[in-house]
Amino acid sequence: GALLWGLPGLLVATVLIVLIGALPLYFAANPSYTGSAHRPADFGLLARHSLVGMSITTVGQYADLLLLDLAGVNKQLLGSYSLATIFFFAASSLVGAVQSVSMPHFTTLMTDKAAFRAALLRWSSWLTIAGVVVAIGAIVVAWLLETFFLRSSYAGLSAIVAILMLRFLVWSSYAVSGAA
Asked: What's the rounded Cα separation, in Å, for the pair 77 and 54?
């Protein structure tokens, strides 16, 4: 798709490949389902909301790249930005892991407000500290890649990563309270 139709072709081909790959998984996940299993009355509504939310999140993660491409941004700069977003998404996986691990802990503290707040402060502080370390590491790795391997073909990579790491740091500083 990308060779014939560029970025739109690549995106359409990617979506089609994911759909084609998901069909066998869908049927394999519940081969004996006959519709007789008990489901909550609002299950379909919840499933649709979940699907819409997941779709919006996925599109939102890549909307900036699509808009920059449509706006005609220099392709070399767009390539640098695209590579820089990989650093951001990699750093974001740390936050997602912390949210997944901390959520059950916060659930057990729902009735004790003082313990809940203390745990929230502790988890948020540690995540912020870890976020600073990850951000600095990402910027250093990006600078090394740009300086010694990619050179002028990805000029500005470390500067873009630095800006995205600021975004990451702001987000990581409050992400636990969003999950709690």
From this structure: 29
Question: 103-107: long-range contacts (C-beta < 8 A, 24 or more apart)?
Answer: 103/179, 103/180, 106/179, 106/180
CA pseudo-torsion sign 135, 140, 143, 148:
negative
Distance in angstroms (rounded) separating the CA atoms of residues 61 and 59: 5
Residue 159: count other Cβ atoms within 10 Å of its Cβ.
15
pLDDT of residue 136: 97
Coil, strand or helix at 34 = coil
pLDDT, tens digit (0-9, with 9 covering 90-100), for 127-151: 999 999 999 999 999 999 999 999 8
Helix (H, G, I), strand (E, B) or coil at 30: coil
Residue entry with tokens 């951000």: 135
Neighbours of 58 (CB within 10 A): 11
Handedness of CA 69, 71, 73, 75 (dihedral sign): positive
Q: Which amino acid is at 70?
A: L
Residue with tokens 């707040």: 117
Tokens of 87: 């650093």
Task: Give me the residue label for tokens 């609002």.
Answer: 42
The alpha carbon of 103 is separated from its chain's Cα centroid by a whole number of angstroms, namely 18
Distances in whole angstroms, Cα of residue 89 to Cα of each of 82, 85, 118, 168: 11, 6, 29, 9
Asked if residue 119 lies in contact with residue 109, where contact means CB atoms within 8 angstroms, the answer is: yes
Q: Which two tokens stand for residue 74?
A: 């220099």
Q: How far apart are CA 132 and CA 166, in angstroms?
A: 9
